[in-house]
Amino acid sequence: MKAIIIDDEKHVRDGLLLLGEWDRFGIHEIFEAKDGEEAKTLILEHRPEIIFTDMNMPKLDGIQLLKWLHDAEINSKTIVVSGYDDFHYMRNAITYGSFDYILKPIEPDVLNETLERATKEWKKQALMRESTLENTRVMNEIKPLYWDHLFTGIINKPTIPSDAKEKIHKEFGINLTEVQCTITLLSINSIISRYFEGDKDLAFFTTLNICNEIVWSNRNGVCFRNVNKEDEIVILLWNHKNQFDLLEKIQACIFKYCHIKMTMAVGKPSQQLHETYQSAIQTMLKHNIVEANKKKIVSYQDISSSPLLHILDYTQEIMWALQSGSIEQMDEVLNRIFCSLQSTHILSFEQIQVWENQFELLRKNWLKEYNINEQISQYNGKDYWEDDGSFSYEKFKEEKRKEFHELIHSLYKVKYQKEKNSIQEIESFLRNNYERDIPLQEIADRFYLSREYISRRFKAEYNETITNYLTNIRIEKAKELLENPHLKIYEISFKVGYQNEKYFSKVFKKAVGLTPNEYRVSMMSK
User: Fold this and answer.
1) What is the pLDDT of residues 364-413, one digit of tens each?
2) Nearest alpha-carbon partner for 177 in 160, 158, 194
3) Environment class of residue 143 by beta-carbon count within 10 Å: exposed (0-12), middle (13-18) or buried (19+)?
4) Would you call 491 helix, strand, or coil by DSSP?
5) Using CA atoms, how far apart are residues 218 and 205, in angstroms rounded to an integer?
6) In degrees rounded to 5, what are phi and psi of residue 178?
């Protein structure tokens, strides 16, 4: 990515260059301009994704530059950096699509937080623009959501309704009751969190565009989203002579796009859609995940008949470990289970589902026995994947250990800990020390707990992160101090833990909706 800094003061440009964490956000080229006129030339030549601009500049000022960017339909994310907290400037920044408006002197945290949001927004919008361009003419003419629902409605039925058959024939030129079809399933769960940052709709939109562009190019079939499943794409092929070539091409394109190799489960060819679909489901559920790392395209012939491991068979051993409160004893039990899983069973999605369901049953029963509220957040470890989409047996074991470790900790705390709840003590500690910065590591060291455990348990207890909770305490204290007309705003800022008055004002306004001065006036008028 590229960025440009536009300001007539060199020390401001140098400051932004120094304070910005450019490499962290993937920005490797940064240009400089001393006014808007010079900037226009550089912007047209280099097309930077991020633009920082001052408002008050010679020749062509910030307002004129923003208007030019708007009229030229340049998609860069523009961040105004100004020494003037002026409504006229802000209004124009908003009018011409500025991404944000930050004030000088520039706080590093504010700068980098804004930069992070701007780069993420630009990437997301760029991805959507690119995906839209890649969509084929045919798929642009139909309504994807309509076809998703129609095809989802027929893959589980023994016969295809006549009206659905006619619509498919009219649109795709194929009579599904007269040809042998093959269904392949593709789970996008791994790319939703990793590449698309949890945006499920964007993940479906992009992946389906890639699949359909390849499949529909030779009128081999159609790809659609199973609306009854959270993460399933169905590849329906009615011309399956070269199906594995097509699937490999889809797999390669997805990998080129997001660097993730996704497993494809191929069902047995059949003239009955529901038969090939059920076969594909069994392929997805029962294939050896570890072995699938090698080829990523598995067929119904790869289904294993290995017996399933049931952790309920180890209930007595697990109970003793839970009652002992010993992490070491629990790990010994888990190691025996893992050893058995590797030596006499295979790891499949079906096996993982059985494990997860039985663990949830175990956990629910033990929480009930110890009178622990089931609504309290508990760790659900399901991140079993490497960055390239490969299954990691080590991550699977680590996630399962984390679940049991948290369960044993919860039970042991209820049974043996008589003193005040540690999370409540942390909350009290925050209230007594709100006037200074409190690193999470300091809290972890003070209360002999891990940072991850503190963050998770505090959020579960108070429905807020520690950072947000501390901010709320500071804001409430600031409100009390603002009722004293003799205290200056900067004095209040220092008293509640903010060394910079302007940053304090920004945080206060974001939380309250008024600046500190406005809030004080409103209180005096009551």
Assistant:
1) 888 888 777 766 677 888 888 888 888 889 999 999 999 999 988 888 77
2) 160
3) exposed
4) helix
5) 21
6) -110, 0
